[in-house]
Design a protein that fits this description.
8 helices, rod-shaped, about 200 residues, mainly alpha
């Protein structure tokens, strides 16, 4: 593999760098989504039971112990529980808008890697072909090694560029879909959280 990498020419180092960036982003995002994954229905029922007893501090502690977008929204709602319903709703909506950049972090960079890798491979193909035609132009076709180096650079950079781009595209689409689903759930939960807090306001 190292020999093939070297034969691919200098463009291979840029493709390698792009692949490392992509791997780091993918691993970080998968760990992040695993960390914020919670059973929302169970958690909301637990918070509702706690709030109905008037234990706001305990409800905040539950939110702190289970960090996720939904608990971050709930925490803001609890902290604004003594305000009118509209104020609570606006506070929760603002909190939801703050969660979106956290969910989408680094995804644009991953998309850039997915688009850039095959372009780098294409660039390597062009430079490899230029080298091959240069060998032919100098009339030293009798040296197959010189010609082979240019052809190898042309083919290897394309292959490695695609090897990097294909999984990057797959994970990018997977993560974007996951983010969109979470954002949709947050939007649907806003009214539910406002009604929950409104219904337990007397206890609080």
């Amino acid at each position: 593999m190292l020999e093939l990498f070297v034969k691919g020419g200098p463009i291979m180092y840029f493709i390698l760098f792009a692949s490392l960036v992509g791997v780091v982003i993918i691993i970080e995002r998968l760990i992040f989504f695993r960390r914020i994954r919670v059973d929302e229905q169970t958690l909301i029922r637990r918070l509702k039971a706690t709030l109905e007893k008037g234990h706001a501090d305990e409800a905040l502690a539950i939110c702190e112990a289970n960090p996720s977008p939904i608990t971050n929204l709930m925490k803001v709602g609890i902290e604004n529980r003594h305000h009118p319903k509209q104020v609570i709703r606006e506070a929760i909506l603002d909190a939801a808008n703050l969660e979106i950049p956290k969910l989408e972090r680094s995804l644009s960079a991953l998309g850039t890697v997915a688009n850039l890798a095959p372009l780098l491979g294409l660039l390597g193909t062009v430079t490899g072909n230029i080298r091959s035609f240069g060998v032919i132009g100098m009339g030293i076709v009798g040296d197959p090694a010189a010609l082979a180096r240019g052809i190898a650079e042309a083919l290897l950079t394309t292959a490695f560029g695609l090897i990097v781009a294909i999984p990057a595209i797959i994970f990018y689409n997977y993560l974007v879909t996951k983010v969109n689903n979470i954002i949709t759930r947050l939007e649907n939960r806003v009214n539910e959280l406002v009604l929950l807090l409104e219904g337990t306001k007397n206890a609080l």
